[in-house]
Amino acid sequence: MAQVKPDFHLEQQFASQGLVVGVDEAGRGPWAGPVMAGAVWINPALLSSLPSEITDSKKLNFAKREYIHKALISLGIAMAVGQADVEEIDRLNILNATFIAMERACINLQEKLGCVIKTILIDGNRKPKFRAMSEKLNLIPIINGDNLSLSIAAASIIAKQTRDSYMSDLHKRHPEYGFHRHKGYGTKFHRLALAKFGPTPHHRSNFSPIRLLKS
Q1: Do residues 37 and 23 lie in contact, with contact meaning Cβ atoms separated by under 8 Å?
Q2: Cα-based torsion angle of the residue sequence 14, 83, 175, 206 in order, rounded to the nearest 10 degrees
Q3: Measured by CB atoms within 10 angstroms of the end CB, which terminus of the chain is less buried, N or C?
Q4: Rounded CA gap, 85 and 204, in Å?
Q5: Other beta carbons within 10 Å of 3
Q6: Within a 13 Å sphere around the CA of 93, how many CA atoms are in the beta-carbon half?
Q7: How many angstroms separate the CA atoms of 67 and 74, rounded?
Q8: What's the helix, strand, coil split of the chain in %, to 5?
Q9: Could you report the per-residue pLDDT of 100-118, keeping only the tens digit for each?
């Protein structure tokens, strides 16, 4: 069976209503670090120039993601990132913090574009409330969206690359945790480091492995 690749049919479906962007997140599951979201608008005139390998970032290794990320930048694809920090994750829960990161990414993209976004294609099965954007905004949750929509897939790569870079920089401040290796996810190495050194301010206090250490 041929592997399904993301295409532009969803963007075209809503294009008559105005600007259509895709948004996706990275970092819902880790024990440490922010959750980040990418937002992307693809100019239809650039479709034929896009890297053919664009797909869900989880299907790509680091080298392939880096190649696509650089290609999107060189093409001038409109993109932006938003994040919610650990304090917001602990206070609001990871789902609500993720939605905040997504809205921030879309606001940042809208400011870059200098025009109002009309439709946002969101990877997932839940429709968030974007309180800081227009009430007329068309929010469309797309299950498996990063495998169906080019905009969402590109956004997933932007979010993942940006967050991985952030966690690699965090490693320089806390090398004993190996953040450059696991990016904050719950690996054996990370668990052992937590047991030995305790949590940092960058760990999510409400996630059970951290909460148990602090109890």
Answers
A1: yes
A2: -110
A3: N
A4: 9
A5: 7
A6: 2
A7: 11
A8: 50, 20, 30
A9: 999 999 999 999 999 999 9
Q: Please choose, from the candidates 167, 169, 161, the residue with its C-alpha nearest in 3D space to the C-alpha of residue 79.
A: 161
**pLDDT higher than threshold 70 for residue 3:** no
CATH code: domain 9-172 is 3.30.420.10
Report the Cα 141 to chain-centroid distance in Å: 15
Q: Which residue has the tokens 């592997």?
A: 3
Q: Is the dihedral of CA 179, 181, 184, 188 positive or negative?
A: negative
Residues 6+ away with beta carbon under 8 Å from 118? 14, 17, 18, 19, 20, 136, 137, 138
pLDDT tens digits for 116-170?
999 999 999 999 989 888 778 999 999 999 999 999 999 999 999 999 999 999 9
pTM, entire model: 0.94
Q: Tell me the two tokens of residue 47.
A: 């479709």
To 10 degrees, what angle do helices 150-173 and 62-75 make?
110
